Amino acid sequence: MAKEKTQTFEQSMAELEVIVKQLETGEVPLEEALEQFQKGIELSKVCQDTLAKAEETLTKIMSDEGKEVPFEEVGE
Question: Is the distance from CB of 44 to CB of 37 less than 8 angstroms?
Fold first, then answer.
């Protein structure tokens, strides 16, 4: 079984938006709606993890000693 290529954050968000729009129409057969809902939950978790990691990275800076420290600790 071939390993699926990892989507970028933007690709995952775009796919999630398509799923939401499809489900909002109410015209998707029940079985497909359930599959789409599950896929949407997975994409939502992936996007949330990506955002959490980005926030963690952005809230750290390098100290004078070359170590990463939380942004709030600088100047204390």
Answer: no
Q: What is the DSSP letter of 76?
A: -
Q: What is the C-alpha separation between 46 and 43, in angstroms, rounded?
A: 5
What is the pLDDT tens value at each position of the chain, 76 positions in all?
Answer: 444 568 899 999 999 999 999 999 999 999 999 999 999 999 999 999 999 998 888 777 666 666 776 666 545 4
pTM score, whole prediction: 0.69
Pairing of strands 68-70, 60-62: antiparallel
